[in-house]
Amino acid sequence: MGQSRSSLQAFSGTTMRRLRNTPSYFFLIWRWTMWLYALVVILNYDYDPLRRKIGIILLVVTLLQTLFVTLYAPFLYILVPRLTPPIPLFMQKTRRISKRSRPMAEDAEADILTPLASTRNVYWDIIIYSIDLLICGFAMYYGGALGNPPFGAGSVFYRYGISTVFAAAFAYRYRGGLTVALGYNLFVILGIFVPPPGAIQHVADIIDILGSLIDVPLVALLAAYVATLLSQYAQSKRREQDNVRRQQALVHVSETLLRGAHDIPDMLQKSVAQIRQGGHFQRLALALFELPDEEQTQSAQDHWTIHTYAEDTIPGEFPITHNKSLLQEVAQHGKPIITFERLPEGNGQYGIARLYIPFFKGKQVQMVLGAESIRQTHFSERQERFLTISGTQLLVTLDNIRLTEETIKLAAAAERGRIAREIHDGIAQLVYMLSLSAETCVAQANRIAEASEEDAELLLPLAQRLEKLVTISKQALWETRNYMFNLKPLMSGSTTLPQMLKNQLREFETISGLSTQLEVTSDGDIDEAHLHSRRYAQVGTAIFRIVQEALTNAYKHAEATRILVYLAQCPTQVEVEVRDNGHGLPSPTQLQDAAQKHLYSGYGLQGMRERAEELGGTFEITQIPDSGIRIYASIPI
Question: Could you tell me which of 152, 180, 182, 184 has the C-alpha nearest to residue 167?
């Protein structure tokens, strides 16, 4: 019972499949009905032994023919595969309608199915339809011995044989139907001039001849007309379904883009899968191209950072190789690629259709969408338009995400600047006034103590407390100014890395009182545009923070009195070295303990090392033989 139910479930209930199977249904119903008609006629008439023997032979031959055609009808393999016998060896090599061998393509099943078996080889098709015509033609010819007149419409198998005209007309429209009708009429003419064995004597008249010769061409024209209408309606229905599917895919892509802004890689992977399904592509690849500097010329495109996302359902017997060079070719030339490459012999009219479309941001290609499928023709304008709309949605969304991130950064920088100004105009001024007041009190206490020895003993504890207050207030002022300086935006406008470090050292001298010196060396071959790139800004920020940590360490822990900063800008990297004359770290063990306990401010040594290594650079800290610490960082640009 379970097997029967599963077999019945294989029948498709969709309108499109019923429509495509209509010619096969009609053909088989007609052939079986006309065979039963011939059976009833032969059984109910009293023929002489020769004519009855001819009738029985014809019934057996046409029964075997009908059974074979029914069992191997193309639509039967799709609807009820469990009820069909094994495919003969010759058909396994040439058949193209099985589920495993038929490639998924937008137009693979747009047309109606042929009533007879269809192969990948046109010669096999000719042989199949020719054999069917010969069997039906001879059945009609020899069946004339059982009727009157003994040819054409008088034959018991005349209507049975017309089914071969239906098969050819449904498969090849007017050309096929009229060709087979002509061949069928040749058997009618043969019966007129050469009566079959056992035929009764009959004088052919014009009505019998015209009635036998005109019916078949009219049937061929009618069947071809119906097949054309069915095909046009099926294609129209398929286009409508494609449009609905594409619209739904665009809606799903839009929803994915709205929900996935927090996770861009996952959003892009899901979008690729939805675009592939919506466009009915077998393979879809999305490549994002990022240049280190958007203002670089076309010759700098070898430094592209490429992020690729792909969705692939092409079966293993049809391998298609995606390669980076094809994506780069589209991006470099900025022109779409639309190609169709025929598959090797044995695959019929199928080939590999490719459609690669670039998407621009300004004059620079930022994204490429590539679709590939095994089809019978090039991708049409519908697929190109769908891919263009989907890609534009993706590109706009990515730009919006980038703009949002930039807006957040700008808002954060503006807020940091506002807080820095508030600290400078408020807390910093108050702490500075507190420091001046404490120093004034210390000076006043010292003058009173010098004027009176009696008061000196009383004022000594007070002076010591005031001196501690001065130290604390200076430390608080230094911390306040240091935090204020940390909050200020690093690189704004056309500020360069040397200017940043120069301002940093000037500010540091103001709040610490230590002597600093900056030495800058630069290679003149560095591209000026590259100095304002996003990558260089990231490197500059890391260098700035590393120097800031080193200055803080020298002031708070090394008890240094002088600090030297060396900056070297090379075409491939930026190097910075910070030296102080403090007491240093006498042993590697103490250096390791200091790093683990975060004796240095902020992230400490580990923070400086991570800043350099995150950008692919190196970081070193060594003890100077005489005294002090040497901190060195090198970061590629």
Answer: 180
Q: How far apart are CA 346 and CA 337, in angstroms?
A: 27
pLDDT tens column, 32-64: 999 999 999 999 888 888 899 999 999 999 999
Rounded to whole angstroms, what are the CA distances from 399 to 129, 261, 366, 367, 403? 59, 11, 10, 11, 6
The residue segments making up the domain with residue 323 are: 261-397
**Residue 87 is which amino acid?**
I
Q: Does residue 86 lie within any of the structural domains?
A: yes
- Token pair listed for 452: 């009176």
Local structure of 489: helix, strand or coil: coil
Judge contact between 391 and 268, C-beta under 8 A: no
The residue type at 227: A
Dist. CA 15–CA 38, nearest whole Å? 34
Residues 67 and 130 in one domain: yes
Question: What domain count does the chain have?
Answer: 3
Token pair recorded at residue 472? 């604390």
The answer to whether the CB of 133 falls within 8 A of the CB of 116 is no
Counting beta carbons within 10 angstroms of the beta carbon of residue 596, is it exposed (0 to 12), middle (13 to 18) or buried (19 or more)? Answer: exposed
- Whole-model pTM: value is 0.54
Give the strand pairing for 562-569 and 515-522: parallel
The answer to the question of residue 440 being in a domain is no
The token pair at 264 is 């861009």
Nearest to residue 480, comparing CAs of 441, 439, 430? 430
User: What confidence score (pLDDT) does residue 356 get?
Assistant: 92
Which of 348, 376, 397 delimits the end of a domain? 397
* Same domain flag for 543 and 610: yes
585: DSSP letter: -
Kindly state the helix (H) or strand (E) to which residue 563 belongs, with its residue range. Answer: strand 562-569
Average pLDDT over all residues of the chain:
79
Q: Is the pLDDT of residue 205 over 60?
A: yes
Residues sharing a CB contact under 8 Å with residue 81, sequence separation 6 or more, in sequence order = 10, 99
Total length of the chain: 637
Which amino acid makes up residue 631? Answer: I
Q: Which amino acid is at 627?
A: S
List C-alpha distances in Å: 20 to 74, 237, 336. 11, 11, 35
